[in-house]
UniProtKB/TrEMBL annotation:
An example molecular function term from Gene Ontology annotations: glycoprotein endo-alpha-1,2-mannosidase activity
InterPro entries reported in the protein's UniProt record: Glyco_Hydrolase_99
Taxonomic superkingdom: Eukaryota
Protein name: Glycoprotein endo-alpha-1,2-mannosidase
Family of this protein: Belongs to the glycosyl hydrolase 99 family.
Subcellular localization(s) per the UniProt record: Golgi apparatus membrane
Pfam name, any one: Glyco_hydro_99
Membrane topology, record value: Single-pass type II membrane protein
Gene: Manea
PANTHER family the record matches: ENDO-ALPHA-1,2-MANNOSIDASE, GLYCOPROTEIN ENDO-ALPHA-1,2-MANNOSIDASE
Gene Ontology cellular component list: Golgi membrane
Keywords in alphabetical order: Golgi apparatus, Hydrolase, Membrane, Signal-anchor, Transmembrane, Transmembrane helix
Principal EC category: hydrolase
Length: 463
């Protein structure tokens, strides 16, 4: 009996000790769990944010793994549709994007940047498009005879004075579109002003690009960017065709979360349409579309919007007002080239707009050079001066306190106004310009700097 009691007490003591040990282990695990960040998931090491190098390596590993997964998925599913490929690409890379989100500058939706999707190469388009731009002759035959003729021959010889870091890319390549979105987001721009022609139409050197709009919208949304439209001077553009094309854009793309709407002073949320070469059409035709009493009026309909005209000459400001436009922009990145692009005229243009309830949207650019396609146009070249030209333009724009600043451009390579990454390149007799002594992303960094400065100054203006 004594031995039985001793054994029973021993078992109870052992069970109690074991129970206490289990409780201790559980409490330790709970304590560790509360220390772990909420955002951490499996494979996301604790304290990753404190080790930038490790974080970068992890993002690269995730990207490589996602690329492998995409390749395997494409092999299995045989996806041929461009939009489907882009969607699959985005889904596979969402994890790295979320990790990079904190590193990217917040988008500034008052910084609008002109963007072109007209480039093509054999891999995606069966041929080069736009990179093989022809040399445009001068209108005076006597002058034209002094300059070379023909076309550029990519990939070594392209229609640009600078050379892209991404090479002679295709605008259809989803990896290129994503790289562009990441660059624009890193520059703290917020709204992409997409060059647009109606379905089946294109510029004289390009191919139709409306089919790319859904992919651009999807990638823009992934990087929290918005998209608006830069309506180009397509054939037979008038009040009727503009009504139908605006309706087409709003009906087809207006429900996308990346479709941009601007909040007006009255609280309305309206799309913005930039209208390039608007002055080609007489004010009476525009008034049919843009005034309440017009025969083709778009006002107070579901397709109403803010329409922004291009101002080149001083007299255009009166035509723009009579036409019923909501504002004006200056586009050209050439200080002194036109009345509108001359910085010293911006104050008077802003005053005119203020007195007539119009928006004034100055366009700033990093420089201008188009001698690769207009070899006779040296006099309009504007040297970048290692970024000083760009900063001078921003400074002039901020002086007039605009509601929106537009940037010419992200990737208009033919006219050398791009802020996209460019690299040094020498091939044969061609030596391309570059951004040295700075890095390829210098103009993205300058844009981000002025975006933050503009944001802070706007806060002061509103006080």
């Amino acid at each position: 009996i004594l031995n039985y009691d001793i054994m029973a007490r021993f078992r109870r003591r052992t069970c109690i000790i074991l129970l206490l040990f289990i409780l201790f282990i559980c409490s330790i695990m709970m304590a560790l769990k509360t220390l772990r960040p909420d955002r951490a998931g499996f494979g996301d090491p604790f304290g990753l944010g404190l080790l930038p190098e490790l974080q970068q390596q992890t993002v690269l590993l995730d990207s490589k793994q996602n690329s492998l997964n995409r390749a395997q998925g494409d092999t299995v599913t045989r996806v041929s549709n461009l939009h489907s490929i882009a969607v699959n690409t985005m889904k596979a890379s969402m994890s790295p994007v979320k990790k990079m989100e904190e590193e990217l500058s917040s988008p500034n939706y008052n910084f609008h940047i002109f963007y072109y999707t007209w480039y093509g190469n054999p891999q995606f388009d069966g041929k080069y498009i736009h990179w093989n731009h022809p040399l445009l002759p001068h209108w005076d035959p006597k002058i034209a005879n002094n300059y070379p003729k023909g076309r550029h021959n990519p990939p070594e010889d392209i229609g640009a004075n600078f050379y892209p870091e991404l090479g002679s890319y295709s605008s259809k390549d989803p990896t290129v579109i994503e790289a562009h979105m990441k660059q624009m987001r890193s520059a703290s721009t917020g709204v992409i002003v997409l060059s647009w022609y109606p379905p089946g139409m294109a510029d004289e050197n390009g191919e139709p690009t409306d089919g790319l709009v859904p992919v651009v919208l999807d990638y823009a949304h992934k990087y929290n960017l918005k998209v608006t439209f830069h309506i180009e001077p397509y054939k037979d553009r008038d009040d009727r065709s503009m009504y139908h094309n605006v309706k087409y854009i709003v009906d087809k793309y207006g429900s996308h979360p990346a479709f941009y709407r601007h909040k007006t002073s009255t609280g309305r949320l309206l799309p913005i349409f930039y209208v390039y070469d608007s002055y080609v059409t007489i004010p009476e035709i525009w008034a049919n579309l843009l005034t309440v009493s017009g025969s083709q009026s778009i006002r107070n309909t579901p397709y109403d919007a803010l329409f922004i005209a291009l101002l080149v000459e001083e007299r255009h400001k009166h035509d723009i007002h009579r036409s019923g436009f909501d504002g004006m922009y200056t586009y050209f990145a050439t200080n002194g080239f036109s009345y509108g692009s001359s910085h010293h005229n911006w104050a008077s243009l802003k005053a005119f707009c203020d007195s007539n309830n119009l928006m004034f949207i100055p366009s700033v650019g990093p420089g201008y050079i188009d001698t690769s396609i207009r070899p006779w146009n040296n006099h309009n070249t504007r040297n970048r001066v290692n970024g000083k030209y760009y900063e001078t333009a921003f400074s002039a724009a901020l002086l007039v306190r605009p509601e929106i600043i537009s940037i010419t451009s992200f990737n208009e390579w033919h006219e050398g106004t791009q802020i996209e990454k460019a690299v040094p390149k020498r091939t044969g007799q061609v030596v391309y310009l570059d951004y040295k002594p700075h890095k390829p992303n210098v103009y993205l960094e300058l844009t981000q700097k002025w975006s933050e400065k503009y944001r802070k100054e706007q806060e002061q203006w509103l006080m």
